[in-house]
């Protein structure tokens, strides 16, 4: 059983801060700085170029990939780290379109994170082969899956509301129509139980700087289902995805399985910080974490609704239908978030009116939740956004 | 005038090692670990999500880009950091092809680094619009520039021989044919004087972990000429290249100028190490560095040729026609490099028979060069590769 009191002590959290924004950027694992110093001084500094082999840098993207793989229910050997989430979306999309050459539609929903849609838009424009990005409301997805659709690109947890897609159900519906699915797990990995293998997901991508606490700009990951791993082609065919990178052949030959989803030189220093974060994750039971996340978020909703009647719950009320965040709607939401931050409660705002709080059991406890709710209640009672000086300070015009 | 004795003290160099492989991975700047610790502890640890604004993380890719820009003769505001070199090659290629829609040929040479060719191959395959990658010997390039060619993709300095392309001449020939040019500066930036603005280069890309000493997996950079900056379209259209990323609009609108070449979340930790490296570069005069690089490499050639008649110079003899490396050909080159490494002289080997040494004046002096040449002479005299035990140890079969 994961001891969540113990995990809290493994993070550096500033005094006087209740951090409900680990869904944007996770906090610093205390061990990360020492690990980074070791990699810089003892590996880069002393091994120099030989670090690629002697310190195992070259194998790190798949080694860390497997540790993330456990958290998302992936088969070992089918996750690799590198690049950014946007790049991994592009890779998965390009591979999927090639696997469905007779279909022209990329289906997504309006709850998807805009960058995923932008990447699809840019790919379609660059390919110039008449693909169409069809974006429907999340609730219309199931009906929009037709045999025109080559691939569905979805973020499982809506970044604004926390609404959670049923991965098993949508994947099954897609497969019944001969459609592939790419799951963006940006707000899922380390937040909820995910089972990419069990649900038959074709591709999954995600980032490691949110719930996984890998640090600002930490690398992304990609999962390719075993049945596709040796079929999917990498449009971004860089030398480390080549079957024999150090043969320096003139022509590209894709590497085996997930290796072909590597592109350029791996981000060794960024991986050092992530490694320290994964040392914590290795001992976490995802079912226990999910249960604890629900306990904390239910407590928060209860307290806030009892004291802040003006805030309207924007997240699904059923905890099984949301990720590990809770959002409220309020017209003056931006000012409310700014006031909360000024009082040490860090959440964030998403236009036009969403106040968003993330629940991260590794370093949050009940007391944090009730304290945060109290701060919010005080801010709402004081109507600080009516104060002209405050409005000037936080830039509300 | 740059004081190269002073710059040497700014790097951590292992005892007993003469490092002639800074063209693969530069050594650790002594200040980098402290800078990294500060970014991790004081920025990530204490500022958490607000580091994006308060610590200036969001602006770092263009701020550091300008500091690299000075080293390659770019106009301020036209270089941005991010991703890997392979990704930046793809971005430049995709943008260039869109600017020459009626042409179908990507021209490159057989001295280009394979990853650049692989990226072009993958792009052509993914686009599926009948583009052709035409690879000619370097000496045939000038004649191969015809009005069929949309874009020329060249690495200025050949990674094996160090042969240096004349950027001004080839760019002028290309432009006369209505052809665009992408210069890969992987072995140029921080190695030789480069003038992307003066030569009229359309695009330039490069990495920061070689001569620039940014650390293993440090981010890449891309330059887009001012005349193209608001025209070039980003096929990899990520949210940080959007004109208003935090408006979370559903459709992509490219950002102004070089900003549109940003893709995903910037690698903040990797940039911290690079920043410490650029603190050193800021005071370096590139003409003085180039002169010093020539002095050191000429000395090395002189010493090696005097004592190792079996090694055949693979680099151009004229220092103005090579970058900051010197290569020799020898059938048993792999064993020679392994033996040199065992004696503390780090160079590297490139198949099938190239022994490669990089000259990096920031931390190398005449004594290093003469000592390295002596070690090489001893190895060649001892014919260590004829020794069966040695052959087994270094894996020569």
UniProtKB/TrEMBL annotation, chains A, B:
Highest rank taxon of the organism: Bacteria
Keyword Hydrolase: yes
InterPro entries (UniProt xref): Kynureninase, PyrdxlP-dep_Trfase, PyrdxlP-dep_Trfase_major, PyrdxlP-dep_Trfase_small
Keyword hit for Lipid metabolism: no
Alphabetical GO biological process terms: anthranilate metabolic process; L-kynurenine catabolic process; L-tryptophan catabolic process to kynurenine; NAD+ biosynthetic process; quinolinate biosynthetic process
Enzyme class of the recorded protein, top EC level: hydrolase
Signal peptide interval: none
Residues modified as N6-(pyridoxal phosphate)lysine: 210
Residues where pyridoxal 5'-phosphate binds: 85-86, 113-116, 155, 184, 187, 209, 239, 265
PANTHER family, alphabetized: KYNURENINASE (PTHR14084:SF0)
Homology family: Belongs to the kynureninase family.
Assembly behavior: Homodimer.
Protein name as catalogued: Kynureninase
Organism from which the protein derives: Roseovarius litorisediminis
């Amino acid at each position: 059983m994961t001891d969540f009191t113990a995990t809290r002590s493994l993070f550096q959290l500033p005094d006087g801060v209740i951090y409900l924004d680990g869904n944007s950027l996770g906090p610093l694992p205390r061990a990360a700085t020492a690990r980074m110093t070791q990699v810089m001084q003892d590996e880069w500094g002393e091994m120099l170029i030989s670090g690629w082999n002697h310190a195992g840098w070259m194998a790190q993207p798949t080694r860390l990939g497997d540790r993330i793989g456990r958290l998302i229910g992936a088969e070992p050997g089918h996750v690799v780290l590198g690049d950014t989430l946007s790049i991994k979306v592009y890779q998965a999309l390009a591979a999927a379109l090639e696997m469905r050459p007779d279909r022209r539609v990329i289906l997504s929903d309006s709850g998807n994170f805009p960058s995923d849609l932008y990447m699809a838009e840019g790919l379609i424009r660059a390919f110039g082969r008449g693909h169409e990005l069809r974006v429907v409301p999340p609730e219309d997805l199931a009906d929009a899956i037709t045999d025109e659709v080559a691939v569905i690109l979805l973020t499982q947890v809506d970044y604004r509301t926390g609404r959670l897609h049923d991965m098993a159900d949508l994947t099954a519906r897609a497969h019944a129509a001969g459609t592939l699915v790419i799951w963006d797990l940006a707000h899922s990995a380390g937040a909820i139980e995910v089972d990419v293998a069990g649900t038959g997901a074709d591709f999954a991508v995600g980032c490691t700087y949110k719930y996984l606490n890998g640090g600002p700009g930490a690398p992304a990951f990609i999962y390719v289902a075993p049945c596709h791993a040796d079929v999917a082609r990498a449009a971004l065919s860089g030398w480390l995805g080549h079957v024999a990178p150090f043969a320096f052949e003139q022509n590209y030959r894709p590497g085996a399985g997930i290796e072909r989803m590597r592109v350029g030189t791996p981000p060794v220093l960024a991986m050092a910080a992530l490694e320290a974060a994964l040392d914590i994750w290795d001992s976490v039971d995802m079912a226990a974490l999910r249960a604890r996340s629900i306990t904390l978020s239910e407590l928060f909703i209860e307290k806030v609704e009892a004291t802040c009647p003006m805030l309207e719950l924007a997240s699904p009320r059923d905890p099984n239908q949301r990720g590990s965040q809770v959002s409220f709607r309020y017209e003056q939401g931006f000012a409310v978030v700014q006031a909360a931050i000024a009082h040490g409660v860090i959440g964030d705002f998403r236009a036009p009116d969403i106040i968003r709080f993330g629940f991260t059991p590794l370093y949050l406890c009940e007391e944090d939740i009730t304290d945060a709710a109290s701060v919010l209640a005080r801010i709402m009672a004081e109507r600080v956004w009516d104060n002209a000086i405050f409005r000037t300070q936080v830039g509300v015009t």
